[in-house]
Amino acid sequence: MNVRVVAALAAAFALACRSSTVPGPAPATAPSPSPEPGEGHFANIRQLTFGGQNAEAYFSADGRRLTFQATVDTGGCDQQFVMNVDGSGRRRISNGQGKTTCGYFYDGDRRVLFASTHAASPACPPRPDMSQGYVWVLDDFDIYTARPDGSDLRRLTNSPGYDAEATVSPDGRRIVFTSVRDGDLEIYTMNVDGADVRRLTHEIGYDGGPFFSHDGTKIVYRASHPAPEQQASYRALLQRNLVRPSQMELWVMDADGANRRQITRLGGANFAPYFTPDDRRIIFSSNHTNPRGRSFDLYLINADGTGLEQVTTHGEFDGFPMFSPDGRKLVWASNRNGRVQGETNIFIADWRP
């Protein structure tokens, strides 16, 4: 999911090689927000980015750095960056062409995955036509790998259409990702060199946003499977490289695709799931309390679908959560503390279980 989608999600429902440095964080005197009433899991919130659209921040294995994507000017596209967990040392690692999404550290933090459209065109892809309602564009992404300084850029996928949303298994051997290569939005795995591609999902509709459990045995993901009477409309949009994401639920499956089961039935858009460090629960973002409203909050749910618990209570967007490797911190993207309406920044907090 690209950063423009982050801003558009809340608005629409109211309604995600040459390196370079980017401007550093705001002065240390800039106040970070206190937890909102009811946010008992958070302590010591720190704001890491200040201005623009910043999202999908994910920890390195050593817990010292973050990947994230950002749009740093109004006319630009999302690009991939890395920074230290205190917000310092921010550096662009993508080549500045096209649009990027979904960065992820792997190989002992020696490499970073991300998806980019730059091979299709160095220009920003056109924005979708919203006259038919809120839709996502399935841009012509392919998956790339580079060193954390942006050097040694390598292409891992080379199929027409959308290949993105890639993350890596805990043992570092398999990449899980979303692709339209077989005519529908399905989840696949492949070796870290791009070989041995295996399809895991087979239901009509969008299956995406996959993450492995910490023990490597499960994959959690978001899905939107249209009812029979909605499938023709879904396929018509897909033929135009579009998908409508307003109804998504969370699913879990074994790492080989077996035993797929739905774990939420909340309505609205439920997305960005990530396992808690003990793999017993899943944290995710949802607007199910008011699918037409502005607010997306973080929630916890047991891996069997029981025990729903609200984590954030801020009135706008909170999404893309990830726990640090030691489980002591949570990083996420939020509209809180923004200087302008719809600004999305990255925050980190101490986690209270």
Order of strands in the sheet with the most strands?
1-6-5-4-3
CATH homologous superfamily descriptor: TolB, C-terminal domain
Radius of gyration, rounded? 18 Å
Number of helices: 2
**What distance separates the N and C termini?**
28 Å
Helix content: under 10%
Description:
It is built from 2 helices and 27 strands. The chain is mostly beta strands and 353 residues long. The protein has one domain: TolB, C-terminal domain (Neuraminidase). Strands 1-6-5-4-3 form a 5-stranded antiparallel β-sheet. A 4-stranded antiparallel β-sheet has the order 2-27-26-25, with no helix packed on it. A 4-stranded antiparallel β-sheet has the order 7-8-10-11, with no helix packed on it. The chain starts with a helix and ends with a strand. The N terminus is likely disordered.
Short summary:
The protein has helices at 3-13, 231-239; strands spanning 20-21, 42-47, 53-59, 65-71, 79-84, 91-92, 100-106, 111-116, 136-137, 142-146, 154-155, 163-168, 174-179, 186-191, 198-199, 206-212, 218-224, 242-243, 249-254, 261-262, 270-275, 281-286, 297-302, 309-310, 318-323, 329-334, 345-351. With 353 residues, it is mainly beta.
Brief descriptors of the model:
disordered N terminus; Neuraminidase; 353 residues; 5-stranded antiparallel β-sheet; globular; single chain; 4-stranded antiparallel β-sheet; mainly beta
Summarize the topology.
Layout: H1 3-13, E1 20-21, E2 42-47, E3 53-59, E4 65-71, E5 79-84, E6 91-92, E7 100-106, E8 111-116, E9 136-137, E10 142-146, E11 154-155, E12 163-168, E13 174-179, E14 186-191, E15 198-199, E16 206-212, E17 218-224, H2 231-239, E18 242-243, E19 249-254, E20 261-262, E21 270-275, E22 281-286, E23 297-302, E24 309-310, E25 318-323, E26 329-334, E27 345-351
Antiparallel strand pairs: 1-6, 2-27, 3-4, 4-5, 5-6, 7-8, 8-10, 9-18, 10-11, 12-13, 13-14, 14-15, 16-17, 17-19, 19-20, 21-22, 22-23, 23-24, 25-26, 26-27
